């Protein structure tokens, strides 16, 4: 937790303690008045009911305060959870904009492998890996889809079907046209695949 959150918790605890202490003091004063009044032989019936009414009012206020404080704690917990979720996905727009660049890098690497220039390929691979690792550190993860794995409509996007090259590939993924990516647990781009029929 940050220092700011710790300070807020400490402040809330201090306020709660001060209010509870004030309520307890008020109850103690009412109790002391009851004891003093018990010593007096000529106590009126109306005064007893007044003191009892005050005790009830103080108890009601204390109960109302505790409920309000509990509601506030729940609100703080809920908003902090929402804020954490927002921070996790706040850079989704930037990550989505970076995906075509990653695709272009992959295509460039494939073409450089065909050209046979090892030094150029090695340099581009270093840059590509650095970019991938930086994005991975920010929560972007490439979804691994293997050829021959089962097609799942909730995770994959089928763009076409072709006759299966073999019987064991019927209803399965034959090729991956475009890789998918996840940001944390959320899929920001579904992998585009070709299935066999």
From TrEMBL:
Complexes and interactors: Homodimer.
CC terms in the record's Gene Ontology section: cytoplasm
Alphabetized InterPro entries for the sequence: GrpE, GrpE_CC, GrpE_head
Comp. bias intervals (Basic and acidic residues): 36-56
Keyword set includes Cell cycle: no
Protein name: Protein GrpE
Region (Disordered): 24-56
Keyword Cytoplasm: yes
Domain of life: Bacteria
Main location: cytoplasm
Gene: grpE
Stretches with biased composition (Acidic residues): 24-35
Subcellular location field: Cytoplasm
Keywords: Chaperone, Cytoplasm, Stress response
Membership in a protein family: Belongs to the GrpE family.
One Gene Ontology term of the molecular function aspect: unfolded protein binding
GO BP terms in the entry: protein folding
